[in-house]
Known about the structure:
Strands 1, 2, 3, 4, 5, 6, 7 and 8 form an eight-stranded parallel β-sheet that branches. This protein has one domain (2-89). The termini are far apart. It has strands spanning 2-5, 8-10, 21-24, 27-29, 40-47, 59-72, 76-88, 100-103. It is mainly β. It contains no helices and eight strands.
Amino acid sequence: DVTVRDSTLRGEYLGWHSRRLRLVNCHISGTQPLCYAHDLVLENCTFDTDADLAFEGSTLKADIRGCVTSIKNPTSGHIIADNIGELIIDENIHSPADCKIEIRK
């Protein structure tokens, strides 16, 4: 139950296994950020190019400005971004595997 605003967050495996984390106007960098998070919310956030393999096993609602290098196996929720470099959905995705992912038009 933490909200972080207007910050730059750097770190490998940032926010893993968090619950009810809310990031507002933040810039995220570091490999494999925000994986296995539950009820994650991102509002108007940006990602550095090194922030790859994001959101694996996470339930989330994310509004991302700019490009995300790669997203891997989000569990459920909704992700909208200006661009997604790579979307990885493979046999290791956790149920319900119903995350809606879209590119902003």
